[in-house]
Amino acid sequence: MEFDSKCMRVIGTAAVSIVGYQIITKFLPWLYINIIGPKLFGPKVDVCRMGSWAVVTGATDGIGKAYAKELAKKGLNIVLISRSLSKLETVAKEIAQAYSVDTKFVDVDFTGGAEIYEKIKTNLEGLDIGVLVNNVGMSYAHPEFFVEFSQSNPQFLRDIISANVHSVTHMTALILPAMVEKKKGVIINISSTAGVIPNPLLTVYSSTKAFVDKFSADLQTEYRARGIVVQSIQPGFVATNMTRIRKPNTFSPSAETYVKSALSTLGIAERTAGYLPHTLMQTVIIGIATVFCEQFASQLVFSNLLKTRQRALRNLAKKK
Prior knowledge:
Elements: H1 2-41, E1 53-57, H2 62-73, E2 77-82, H3 85-99, E3 103-107, H4 115-124, E4 129-134, H5 146-152, H6 154-182, E5 185-190, H7 203-223, E6 228-233, H8 255-263, E7 271-272, H9 276-291, H10 294-319
Parallel strand pairs: 1-2, 1-4, 2-3, 4-5, 5-6, 6-7
Helix pairs in contact: 2-3, 2-8, 5-6, 6-7, 9-10
């Protein structure tokens, strides 16, 4: 009995030590990155010291427009890049009048080829660019099985990869060299929660966003010592035209609310959902995958998205 009690004390001490170690090494950093740091200290990067201009892609709506406005509010001049010339003119005028900064715009369709980057390069020449926000992107109209999706719209497969993957790599290739030369700069890449949790029925979209997240992480490792800040932002649902959510709520905030929160993490978190409710959702799903198994978590998400797909198909049938 004495041996058993000693053994139990050793096991108990070991268990407490392991739990304590997990709290210290995982929970406390999570707490600082997602709550304490952004709330108490705000962004640790002064974007205005990086350069006088910010470049934002997909800048006429949603998260891109919100980033452009927030960066202009901090005093940066803004280059807006999107495909709609009329929207670009409107947003550029709105930002210039509201924040007394200079604006430029470039109208290109990011589903195009190499020629669009030549046009962008020409328009950016001579600008002291301190911040790049790679926001432009495309998603599905509704969750869909890959075969049906790929066969019904093969061009969209090429377009979504061009908009979500090529845009990030080519825009970074255009702007990063000058940042490295002056040893300072910020690149914010908009990934998605879909890229870091299971996302069946949005397979191509989530895979492109996983690329953005991995690209950002490894790029940061390459250039951290050269004064470059690279951040991967992984939003959940935000009330934008892309998500078709009209009314913001706690778990689907407005783009303005989301971006203010995400910018508060700059220099604190290299990879983040950017908004506490989205962070909690990610943590729960990843936790389920860790505690049980990834297949179980995938099945939960699959069941939910399958219901979303069925509702969307019913609505389409009613319209017809």
